[in-house]
C-alpha cells in the first residue's frame, strides 16, 4: 500500500503545505522579528542620546559614582542587559550587567560617543555601549500575532484533514471497488460490475467500466461461438488441415487429416511435423519453412500404416515475430499428380521413338555426370555419333524404314552400354553417349570399335549404314557440359570432312578451325551489310584467235582490312549457313551490271556472262529475279549462262529440274561446270537442257603430264567428251589453261573455248573495262 492512491494524495497535500504554506509562515516570522528588532534599536538609540549627554559632565569630572548610577539606570531599561562606559584616557571603565550565567545566546552591541562642550569646543570624552539579546523568529511575536498563528495552523490542519477524508470517501472507495471488480474478473473469469452511483468523474468511470464489462461479456460469447464454429469447420472440412507453432510442433489437426493419415490426435499433438516426413525430404521442408513466411512445398509424408504420400503443403502465417507465429497449413495428397508429372517429365526428356534421352534430358544428365565424375575422380568421354547416308535412306526408302533402322540401331547399341553409361538421341540421326571411366579416352576408342561392329550387319536388305563419331574428354578438352558436347560435335564434323565412317578425337586445331569459320561467318554477314562483295570477271576466249567470247563471274569478298579473301572457304561457309542465296543475289546483280557496262564497249555487245549457281540458289523465285535484273539493265537473256555442277544434277531434284527448265525457256543457256570431277554421266546431257560443257582444270593439266599413261588417258577422255558434246550441239570450254602448250593441244583436240591465267586472270570489272578499251582487244561471239 506504499504506492496507494491515498498515500500519494497525502504526499501531494503535504508537499503543497511545505512548498506554499511553510515559506509564508517563515516569512511572517522573519518580518515580525525584524519589526521587533527595529523597535528595540529605536528605543536604545533614544536612550543612548539622553544618557550620553547625562554622562558627559560626570565623565569630565571623573565622577565614577555618578557614572555608576547612570549606568545602573540604563541597564534597567527594557531589553538592555549590559552597559559599558569608558573614558578616552582609560582612567574610568564602568560596566553594569544583568545577564544570567546560564545565558549562551548572542548579544547585539550598540555604542555612542560621549561629547562634552568645553570653552575650547566639543571634546570626545569616551563612549557608552549597551548590549541586548539577539531576537529569534519567535522572539518578536506579540500576543495577538501568536493567536493569529494558532488560528492559521488550525485552519490548515482542518483543510488537510477534510481533504484526506473527502479523498478517502469519493476517490479511494470507488477505486477500491473498481479494483476489486477487476481482480474478481481476472481470477474468476466472470465479468463483475462496480457498485457505485454518482454524477462525478468516478461515477462516469464506474459506468463506463460496467458498460465495457457488458460489451466484453457479449463479445466473449460471440468469440466462443465463433471458435466453436471454426473448430467445427476445421474438423469437418474435407481437407487435411493442421497447425504448427514456432518450433514446428503440431498444435492442431483436423478430423480429415487424422482420417487420411491414420494417426490419433493425442499421438501427434506436440510432435515435430518433420518427424512425419521421409528423411530425404525432411531438410527440404525445414529449410523452406525457415526461409519463407507462407511456404508451399512438396514432401513425402509417412502415414501410420507405413504408406508414403506425396503431399503438397501450403501454409499461411500470422504473427509479429518468430515467437508469435500462428500457422494454418493444408496438406493435399498429390501422389497421383506427382506420378503424372514424373511421367510427363520422363516423356519430356525421352525420345519417343528409341526410348533414349532426348537433347533436353541429355543436357541435364550431362551436368550430373560431370559432377559425379568430379566426386569419384574419374574422367568422362562424350561421343557424338552421326549416321552417314541416313538422309538417303529416308528420301529413297521412306521415313518408316528410317525409323525402323534407328530402333534396331539403339537395340544393338544397348548391348554394349554399361549401367553407368548414358545414351541419347539428340535429333534425326544424331546420337550422344557418355562413358565415365578412369581412362576415358581408351574406353571411348573401345566403344567406337564396338559401334563400328554394329554396322557390319545390314539393317535391312540393301540398307548399309555407317557412322562418323566425334570424341571429347572431360576434363582434358572441356570444363563444362556445353563445352564438352560442343567439342565432340566439332570432332564429329571434322571426321565428316575427312571422309566419314570412323572416329575422331577432339584436337585444339578443330577449335581454331571453328574460330576461323566463325570469323568467316561474321565477315560474310558484314560483307552483305557493308557491301564488301564484288563480282570479279574472268574472260573466256576463243581458242581459234584468242578473241573474248564471254566472261565468268567470280565472287570475291574485299575486306577493308584484310583485302581479298579466298573465295572457296567463303562459299563453303555460306552454303552451310544458308547465306549463299543472299551472296549469290548480290554477285549476280553486280555481275550483270558490269556486263551492261562492258556492252557499251565497241565489239562487246554479244559477249555473254556465265554465273555460277549453288544448289541452294535454285529457289522458285530465281527465274523471276534473274528476269527482272536483265530487264533492268537491258541484257538479252541468251547472253546469260547459268553454270551448274554435277552435284546439282545427280540428286535429280524435281524442283531444280523445273527451275533449270524455266531458265532455259526464258532464254538463258545452261553450262555444266567442272565436268568429269564428280559422278560424271553423259546421261546428264540427255536429261537436262545443257548448252555448254566445261572440262575441269584437272584434265587440262593432265594432257601434258610427264606420265605417258596419264597423258594418253586424259587426252582420250577430253577428245571423247568433246566429240560427244559436239554431236549433241554443246559447246566445250577448257578451264585452267596456263601454258601455250596446253592451249595448242586443246585447240588441236577440237575444243571451242578456254579460260585461264594464260589469257586473263579474274579481276575487278573497272580494271577489265579499262583493258578492253585498248585498241588491241578483239571480240568473238560464242557459238
Automatic annotation (TrEMBL):
Which parts of the sequence belong to the HAMP domain? 169-221
Please report the stretch or stretches of sequence annotated as the EAL domain: 517-776
Keyword Transmembrane (UniProt)? yes
Sorted keywords for this record are: Membrane, Transmembrane, Transmembrane helix
**For the GGDEF domain, which residue ranges apply?**
378-508
Instruction: Give yes or no: UniProt keyword Zinc.
Output: no
What the entry lists under Pfam families is as follows: EAL, GGDEF, HAMP, PAS_9
Where, by residue number, does the polypeptide cross the bilayer? 12-31, 146-166
PROSITE patterns given for it? EAL, GGDEF, HAMP
Q: Which CDD domains match?
A: EAL, GGDEF, HAMP, PAS
Q: Name one GO cellular component term.
A: membrane
This entry's Gene Ontology molecular function terms read: catalytic activity
Look up the domain of life of the source. Answer: Bacteria
Gene Ontology BP term (one): signal transduction
Q: What is this protein called?
A: EAL domain-containing protein
Amino acid at each position: 500500500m506504499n504506492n496507494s492512491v491515498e498515500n500519494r494524495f497525502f504526499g501531494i497535500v503535504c508537499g503543497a503545505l511545505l512548498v506554499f504554506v511553510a515559506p509564508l509562515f517563515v516569512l511572517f516570522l522573519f518580518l515580525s522579528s525584524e519589526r521587533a528588532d527595529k523597535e528595540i534599536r529605536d528605543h536604545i538609540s533614544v536612550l543612548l542620546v539622553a544618557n550620553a549627554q547625562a554622562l558627559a559632565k560626570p565623565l569630565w569630572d571623573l565622577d565614577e559614582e555618578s557614572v555608576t548610577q547612570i549606568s545602573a539606570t540604563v541597564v534597567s531599561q527594557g531589553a538592555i542587559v549590559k552597559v559599558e562606559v569608558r573614558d578616552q584616557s582609560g582612567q574610568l571603565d564602568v560596566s553594569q550587567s544583568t545577564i544570567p550565567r546560564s545565558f549562551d545566546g548572542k548579544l547585539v552591541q550598540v555604542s555612542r560617543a560621549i561629547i562634552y562642550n568645553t570653552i575650547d569646543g566639543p571634546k570626545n570624552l569616551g563612549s557608552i555601549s549597551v548590549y541586548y539579546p539577539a531576537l529569534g523568529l519567535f522572539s518578536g511575536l506579540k500576543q495577538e500575532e501568536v493567536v493569529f498563528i494558532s488560528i492559521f495552523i488550525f485552519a490548515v490542519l482542518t483543510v488537510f484533514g477534510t481533504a484526506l477524508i473527502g479523498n478517502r470517501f469519493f476517490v479511494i472507495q470507488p477505486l477500491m471497488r473498481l479494483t476489486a471488480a477487476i481482480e474478481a474478473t481476472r481470477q474468476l473469469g466472470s465479468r463483475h460490475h462496480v457498485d457505485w452511483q454518482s454524477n462525478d468523474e468516478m461515477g462516469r468511470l464506474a459506468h463506463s467500466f460496467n458498460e465495457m464489462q457488458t460489451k466484453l461479456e457479449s463479445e466473449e460469447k460471440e468469440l466462443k461461438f465463433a471458435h466453436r464454429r471454426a473448430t467445427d469447420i476445421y474438423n469437418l472440412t474435407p481437407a487435411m488441415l493442421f497447425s504448427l507453432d514456432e518450433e514446428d510442433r503440431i498444435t492442431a489437426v483436423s478430423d480429415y487429416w487424422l482420417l487420411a493419415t491414420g494417426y490419433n490426435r493425442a499421438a501427434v499433438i506436440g510432435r515435430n511435423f518433420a518427424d512425419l516426413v521421409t528423411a530425404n525430404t525432411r531438410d527440404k521442408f525445414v529449410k523452406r519453412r525457415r526461409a519463407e513466411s507462407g511456404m508451399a512445398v512438396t514432401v513425402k509424408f509417412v502415414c501410420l500404416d507405413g504408406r508414403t504420400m506425396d503431399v503438397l503443403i501450403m501454409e499461411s502465417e500470422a504473427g509479429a515475430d518468430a515467437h508469435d507465429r500462428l500457422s494454418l497449413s493444408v496438406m493435399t495428397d498429390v501422389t497421383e499428380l506427382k506420378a503424372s508429372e514424373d511421367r510427363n517429365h520422363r516423356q519430356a526428356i525421352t525420345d519417343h521413338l528409341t526410348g533414349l534421352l532426348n537433347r533436353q534430358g541429355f543436357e541435364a544428365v550431362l551436368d550430373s555426370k560431370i559432377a559425379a565424375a568430379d566426386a569419384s575422380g574419374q574422367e568422362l568421354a562424350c561421343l557424338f555419333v552421326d549416321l552417314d547416308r541416313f538422309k538417303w535412306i529416308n528420301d529413297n526408302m521412306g521415313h518408316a524404314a528410317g525409323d525402323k533402322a534407328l530402333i534396331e540401331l539403339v537395340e544393338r547399341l544397348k548391348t554394349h552400354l554399361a549401367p553407368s553409361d548414358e545414351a541419347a538421341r539428340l535429333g534425326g540421326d544424331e546420337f550422344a553417349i557418355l562413358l565415365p571411366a578412369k581412362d576415358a579416352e581408351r574406353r571411348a576408342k573401345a566403344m567406337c570399335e564396338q559401334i563400328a561392329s554394329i554396322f557390319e550387319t545390314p539393317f535391312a536388305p540393301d540398307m548399309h549404314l555407317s557412322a562418323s563419331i566425334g570424341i571429347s574428354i572431360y576434363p582434358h578438352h572441356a570444363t563444362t557440359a556445353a563445352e564438352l558436347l560442343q567439342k565432340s560435335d566439332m570432332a564429329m564434323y571434322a571426321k565428316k570432312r575427312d571422309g566419314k565412317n570412323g572416329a575422331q578425337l577432339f584436337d585444339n586445331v578443330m577449335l581454331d578451325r571453328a574460330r576461323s569459320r566463325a570469323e568467316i561467318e561474321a565477315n560474310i554477314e558484314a560483307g552483305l551489310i557493308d557491301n564488301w562483295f564484288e563480282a570479279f570477271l574472268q574472260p573466256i576466249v576463243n581458242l581459234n584467235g584468242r578473241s573474248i567470247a564471254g566472261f565468268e563471274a567470280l565472287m570475291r569478298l574485299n575486306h577493308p582490312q584484310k583485302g581479298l579473301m579466298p573465295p572457296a572457304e567463303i562459299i563453303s561457309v555460306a552454303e552451310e549457313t544458308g547465306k549463299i542465296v543472299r551472296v549469290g543475289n548480290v554477285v549476280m546483280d553486280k555481275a550483270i551490271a558490269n556486263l551492261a557496262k562492258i556492252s557499251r564497249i565497241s565489239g562487246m555487245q554479244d559477249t555473254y556472262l556465265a554465273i555460277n549457281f549453288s544448289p541452294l540458289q535454285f529457289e522458285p523465285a530465281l527465274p523471276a529475279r534473274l528476269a527482272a535484273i536483265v530487264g533492268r539493265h537491258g541484257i538479252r537473256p541468251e547472253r546469260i549462262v547459268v553454270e551448274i555442277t554435277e552435284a546439282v544434277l545427280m540428286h535429280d531434284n524435281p524442283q531444280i529440274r523445273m527451275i533449270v527448265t524455266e531458265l532455259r525457256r526464258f532464254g538463258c543457256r545452261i553450262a555444266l561446270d567442272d565436268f568429269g570431277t564428280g559422278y560424271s554421266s553423259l546421261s546428264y546431257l540427255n536429261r537436262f537442257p545443257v548448252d555448254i560443257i566445261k572440262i575441269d582444270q584437272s584434265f587440262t593439266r593432265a594432257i601434258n603430264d610427264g606420265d605417258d599413261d596419264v597423258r594418253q588417258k586424259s587426252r582420250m577422255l577430253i577428245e571423247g567428251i568433246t566429240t560427244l558434246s559436239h554431236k549433241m550441239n554443246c559447246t566445250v570450254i577448257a578451264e585452267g589453261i596456263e601454258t601455250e602448250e596446253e592451249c595448242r593441244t586443246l585447240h588441236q583436240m577440237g575444243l571451242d573455248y578456254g579460260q585461264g591465267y594464260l589469257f586473263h586472270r579474274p579481276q575487278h570489272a573497272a580494271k577489265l573495262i579499262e583493258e578492253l578499251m585498248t585498241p588491241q582487244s578483239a571480240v568473238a561471239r560464242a557459238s
